[in-house]
From TrEMBL, chain A:
Gene3D superfamilies: Anti-sigma factor, zinc-finger domain. This is Zf-HC2 domain-containing protein. Keywords: Transcription, Transcription regulation. Residues 7-41 form the Putative zinc-finger domain. The keyword Transcription regulation applies. Pfam families: zf-HC2.
UniProtKB/TrEMBL annotation, chain B:
Keywords: DNA-binding, Sigma factor, Transcription, Transcription regulation. Gene3D superfamilies: 1.10.1740.10, Winged helix-like DNA-binding domain superfamily/Winged helix DNA-binding domain. The lineage of its organism: Bacteria, Bacillati, Actinomycetota, Actinomycetes, Micromonosporales. This is RNA polymerase sigma factor. It comes from Phytohabitans maris. Residues 27-94 form the RNA polymerase sigma-70 region domain.
């Protein structure tokens, strides 16, 4: 009874909060209630969604000629480029990978949780390791990203390699499991996957199969 | 690997966060008409709208790393940035009074663009909403006005302004319920 009358009173105030016009004490009452009430949280999320989507109704209008060009001239180079970042081809491949991950229904969180985490990620670039054969021959690179979701991206560059490499992930607890396959043709290939384990649990990535000699990259 | 894949909005944001100007160029191509259109609907002046739209993209470029896909779609995030800058711009120029009717008419209008992915359920709801409720909702949500400011502009008591915003938004929210089940 108390809960239900509480929800009714709070429910009245939810549109005010979503529209950004609630008074300070009303906001405080609402948020105190939301902590223990998933139903009202869902309702506020729906109302906020409506408010956000209102802006998308504005008509599209082509801007004056030269708009994009003058904008692109204004872009200063970013303050700190990541050193690990590979060449342009791999960069494009990575962007395509991210598109595939986002499109596959996996929750692709483009960036970190908040400013703090985003900052943290910039401070600590992604891990990059050589993929090498048992005799030390370089066979490509492995990139690991410790954000959310964590992901792994592999490039194979090995003259005469062709076929398929099965990819196994070895975690720190010593377990190994298949996570996919890299198609290789004319000595090159690239492939990536979102991981369901935190990246700091990854000990090693192993490639084996018809494409060429076994390759491995150690992390950690 | 083929590069002809249409990149998702999120992957362009990732590229921008990494300082990739190619990703930014694609992002601008994809959204410039939406951003300029919203800026123009709010400020009403093409020159000022172009400044606002340029600033909105610059802010998106600098803050791409702050985008959180759990909180909003990319287009919603970008248009919220645009809205904030547009509102700031007209507040600075007192010679250009806010005209909520202009934006309301624009929001209610059908869009021809086949690539438009906006919320038609919401547009339908906005059209059915009585104008005396729709205007306060637009002023609060799109212009970021307080209930007190809205009451003054509309010439109505504060309590009435709050009631109209509350009822208006609640009715728009019902449109969401019908569509998304
Ligand atoms: Zn409740």
């Amino acid at each position: 009874m108390d809960d239900r009358s509480g929800c009714a009173e709070i429910g009245e105030l939810l549109p005010d909060v979503a529209a950004g016009v609630a008074a300070g004490d009303e906001r405080a009452r609402v948020f105190a209630h939301l902590g223990g009430c998933p139903a009202c949280r869902r309702e506020l999320a729906a109302l906020s969604h409506v408010a956000d989507e209102l802006l998308t109704l504005a008509p599209a209008v082509t801007p004056p000629a030269g708009f994009a060009a003058s904008l692109m001239r204004r872009l200063a180079p970013p303050p700190r480029r990541r050193r690990w970042w590979p060449g342009r081809a791999a960069r494009v491949a990575l962007t395509v990978l991210l598109a595939a991950v986002a499109g596959s229904g996996a929750t692709m969180r483009a960036t970190a949780d908040d400013r703090r985490e985003a900052h943290h990620c910039r401070e600590r670039p992604l891990a990059e390791r050589a993929l090498a054969a048992a005799d030390g021959t370089a066979g490509g690179r492995a990139f690991g990203y410790g954000g959310s979701p964590p992901w792994l991206f592999l490039t194979v560059a090995l003259p005469a390699a062709g076929g398929v490499y099965d990819v196994h992930l070895v975690t720190r607890d010593g377990r190994s499991r298949a996570i996919g396959a890299v198609p290789v043709s004319a000595g090159g290939g690239s492939w990536g996957v979102a991981l369901d384990v935190p990246f700091d649990q990854v000990a090693e990535v192993r490639l084996a199969g018809s494409a060429g000699p076994p390759l491995a990259a150690a992390f950690g | 690997m083929t590069f002809a894949v249409a990149l998702s909005d999120e992957s362009l944001i990732v590229g921008m966060a990494l300082g990739d100007t190619d990703a930014m160029a694609a992002f601008v191509r994809r959204f410039q008409a939406r951003v300029f259109g919203l800026a123009l609907s709010v400020v009403g002046d093409p020159g000022l709208a172009e400044e606002v739209a340029q600033d909105a993209f610059m802010r998106a470029w600098r803050h791409a790393g702050d985008y959180d896909p759990r909180r909003a779609r990319v287009v919603t995030w970008l248009l919220t940035i645009t809205r904030n800058l547009a509102v700031d711009a007209i507040r600075l120029r007192r010679d250009r009074p806010v005209d909520p009717q202009r934006l309301l008419v624009a929001l209610r209008e059908e869009m021809d663009d086949p690539g438009y992915d906006g919320a038609e359920w919401l547009r339908a709801g906005l059209r059915e909403l009585p104008t005396d409720q729709a205007r306060p909702v637009v002023l609060a949500v799109a212009y970021g006005w307080t209930a007190k400011e809205i009451a003054e502009l509309e010439g109505i008591p504060l309590g009435t302004a709050k009631t109209r915003i509350r009822r208006g938004l609640a009715r728009l929210r019902q449109a969401l319920g019908v569509t998304d089940g």
